[in-house]
Amino acid sequence: MPVQLNQPGKLTSFPLTSPLEEVKKNLGEDWIASLYYYGDRQIVITVPFPDTIRLTGDLLNEDLDVPDHSGKSVFAVYHELDLALLQFIASFPADPSNGIEAEKQTKYELNVLLKDGGEHLGWASLRRRKGKDFGVWSFTLQFSPFKVGSERLPMLIDRLEDAFCMFDIVKLISRLPVSRCDVAIDMYGLRPFDLVLSMNGAGKSCVWENKDHHETLYLYAPKAYPIQKPKHGSYKARGPLLARVYDRSAHAKWHKLPETAGGIPVTRFEVPRAWKSYRPSLALLKNVNNMLEGLGAGFAWPGDLGTNERWRRIHRARFPIRPKWSELGFPVAEGIKLNQLYDNFPKDLVSANSWSRWSDGLSLTGINTLT
Q1: For 14-23, 109-118, 156-165, 343-352, which range has the lowest pLDDT when averaged over its residues?
Q2: How many Cα atoms are found within 13 Å in the side-chain-facing hemisphere of 357?
């Protein structure tokens, strides 16, 4: 059983735990990108991997399991497809016992949950929008390659084929463009406050914490003040989300999930990316631009800094990404030196260089098998 020790003047330690062995047991040695030792503290960093993928696109005649090649006009083919999908939704045979459950079912929309027993595999939806002569249908699939895993991807495909039997699912998935991809890196043996974070062009931040420690950090891009009064009260006074850093162990407790890695603290560094145009396919996902560019994280307590009380106060005052210097009292030189170090802290855990293992993360989660 993991035990946390907080001794005065010493780093927090977690005896009776081994992040390295837990990662090897739960994920496999191929998932390990780097291993660090700070005193008796062992930290394991995984390769970057896709945590969430969403595929979205309009349905084509060629996506059908039996495409219509009868020589009809394009208008006739898609008019019949529109009528067929309307009838399909109206009579959708959702069978929760078979891992398929209709979450939302209206005349022009169908949302389906895909499950493996009680575990969530993903969700898919059919949606109709009005066209000039006939309805245009779009298909969306969202799932977590990390949670599903390469072993259960065939089960996800089977659920989709059972739910949408009129489509060639494998061909459809390989064709649909990616509209969203969340990249994640897990850090075993760390909590969020153990990190010094770096982010180019960072704006606002939001920190959720309990009485013990910080649990979730949201880091946003900057946003200029509006020139005119916003039209809606829901106007967001922050830029797009740049990164989310959260304690997976606490997340599991709040959601009544099994303990992560046997109770060892695990922090996830997650970067979302959405495309409105020029969306890549799954096959081209390995070639997207570096999503970790301008982002970084380092271990906050290396060497003597772990027992330096002034450094601890600086870290507490500037966490997560506050640029303002603190603790400039006597001796001033030490305060300046430590603040300069904070501004240029080593990005030894997460950096743009971590992206070099992105293709490994795609392979380990089984995404390459869907292309």
Answers
A1: 14-23
A2: 19
Separation of alpha carbons 124 and 143, rounded Å: 9
Q: How far are the Cα atoms of 144, 145, 162, 368 from residue 153, in angstroms, in the given order?
A: 10, 8, 14, 11
Alpha helices in 192-331 (DSSP H): 248-254, 309-318
Whose structure tokens read 């599903």?
148
3-state SS of 122-145 is: EEEEEEEECCCCCCEEEEEEEECH
How far is it, in rounded angstroms, from Cα 107 to Cα 127? 9
Q: Check: pTM over 0.85? Answer yes or no.
A: yes
In angstroms, what CA-CA distances link 188 with 219, 244, 262, 291, 350?
A: 21, 16, 11, 21, 13
What DSSP state is assigned to residue 60?
A: -
Question: What is residue 16's DSSP assignment?
Answer: T
For 22-76, the pLDDT digits (tens) are 888 888 899 999 999 887 788 999 999 999 999 999 999 999 999 988 888 888 9
Chain centroid offset of residue 170 CA: 24
Task: List the beta bridge partners of residue 52.
Answer: 182
Q: Residues 178-199: pLDDT tens digits?
A: 999 999 999 999 999 999 999 8
Can you give the three-state secondary structure of 186-214, one letter per residue? Answer: EEECCCHHHEEEEECCCCCEEEEECCCCE
What's the pLDDT score for residue 50?
A: 96
Distance of CA 253 to the CA centre of its chain: 19
Q: What is the SS3 assignment for 123?
A: strand
CA–CA distances in Å: residue 116 to residues 51, 103, 253, 349 = 18, 16, 22, 34
- Per the structure block, which two tokens stand in for 15? 């005896």
